[in-house]
């Protein structure tokens, strides 16, 4: 297998796993979203710590010494915690379709963030794509009688997360380790409190729940490692296409498995968003061809 082929397989597997995460978090549906997120962060931190220790990597030490990077890590840690919490809440509250919509529009929202904060220029196709997204969100807000907050929070939190990672040159693995470390004390206190007052599940879960709690770090870290390795080996345009595997799988899971109502509003919204994505991807390939 060539290096590029290996990259395609790794990146595909990463998005494939991310796409099926709703099925995983649904198994812990009897737990509150914050408790599930706590297990996810604690287990992910322990697994990441073991990985960097085995690899004998100490890149994170340079992050700790740099004041600007410490501030950046506080912000990125807050953003990824918000993103994870809202996603878990969406899955276990029957809003998988909204979560899927959020990850569809995320790359286009990232373009908007780049324009506003990095003064990047948008080509005409990207302007059209962004305009369709805005119109679609407004249409959903009017049809539902409320703004699709879950979709927007997921898209913007992950968009700003990527923006901060880029401008502060933070790698995916070591920076995540420190982001989780920052949240760890608060979550340990939270877990201690709910365990003592009897509302937590740490001491009274079923064997199945214990298994899914324990593997929360694995399903978080493994796709991240696959993506970080795979994305380095394939063209950015290819990563752009593969990233839509995850929200497409989420959409299918929400409609086919969890029977979420695929209303006319959703049908129209997803048609428009697929058009926006198609225009966006065409602009990516056209720019790559020019280069």
Architecture overview:
With 291 residues, the protein is mainly α. The protein has one domain. Helix content is 81%, strand content 0%. The protein contains 14 helices and no strands. α1 runs parallel beside α13, α3 crosses α11 and α4 crosses α9. The longest helix has 27 residues. The two termini are 27 Å apart. The model has no long low-confidence stretch (mean pLDDT 90).
Low-confidence stretches are: none
Mean pLDDT figure: 90
Tell me the total number of β-strands: 0
The portion of residues assigned to helices is: over 70%
The helix/strand series, from N terminus to C terminus, equals: HHHHHHHHHHHHHH
Report how far the terminal alpha carbons are from each other: 27 Å
Radius of gyration: 19 Å
Structural class: mainly alpha
SS summary, helix count? 14
Overall number of domains? 1
Q: How would you sum up the global shape?
A: globular
Q: What portion of the residues fall into strands of 2 or more residues?
A: under 5%
Largest sheet report: none
In short:
With 291 residues, the chain is an all-alpha fold. It has helices spanning 3-19, 21-26, 33-55, 59-65, 67-92, 96-118, 124-144, 149-167, 172-196, 207-214, 216-230, 236-242, 245-257, 264-290. Helix content is 81%, strand content 0%.
């Amino acid at each position: 297998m060539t290096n590029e082929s290996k990259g395609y397989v790794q990146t595909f597997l990463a998005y494939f796993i991310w796409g099926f995460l709703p099925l995983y978090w649904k198994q812990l549906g009897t737990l509150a979203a914050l408790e599930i997120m706590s297990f996810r962060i604690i287990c992910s931190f322990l697994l990441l710590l073991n990985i960097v220790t085995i690899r004998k990597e100490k890149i994170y030490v340079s992050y700790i010494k740099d004041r600007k990077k410490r501030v950046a890590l506080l912000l990125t840690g807050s953003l990824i915690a918000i993103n994870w919490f809202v996603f878990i809440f969406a899955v276990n509250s029957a809003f998988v379709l909204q979560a899927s919509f959020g990850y569809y529009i995320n790359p286009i929202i990232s373009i908007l963030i780049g324009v506003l904060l990095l003064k990047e220029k948008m080509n005409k196709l990207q302007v059209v794509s962004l305009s369709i997204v805005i119109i679609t969100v407004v249409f959903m807000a009017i049809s539902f009688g409320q703004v699709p907050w879950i979709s927007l929070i997921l898209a913007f939190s992950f968009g700003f997360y990527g923006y901060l990672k880029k401008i502060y040159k933070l790698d995916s693995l070591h920076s995540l380790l420190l982001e989780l470390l920052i949240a760890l004390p608060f979550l340990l206190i939270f877990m201690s409190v709910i365990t003592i007052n009897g509302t937590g599940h740490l001491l009274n879960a079923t064997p199945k729940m214990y298994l899914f709690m324990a593997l929360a770090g694995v399903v978080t870290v493994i796709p991240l490692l696959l993506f970080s390795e795979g994305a380095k080996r394939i063209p950015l345009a290819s990563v752009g296409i593969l990233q839509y595997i995850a929200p497409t799988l989420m959409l299918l899971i929400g409609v086919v498995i969890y029977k979420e109502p695929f209303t006319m509003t959703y049908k129209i919204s997803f048609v428009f968003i697929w058009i926006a994505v198609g225009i966006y991807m065409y602009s990516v390939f056209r720019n790559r061809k020019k280069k």
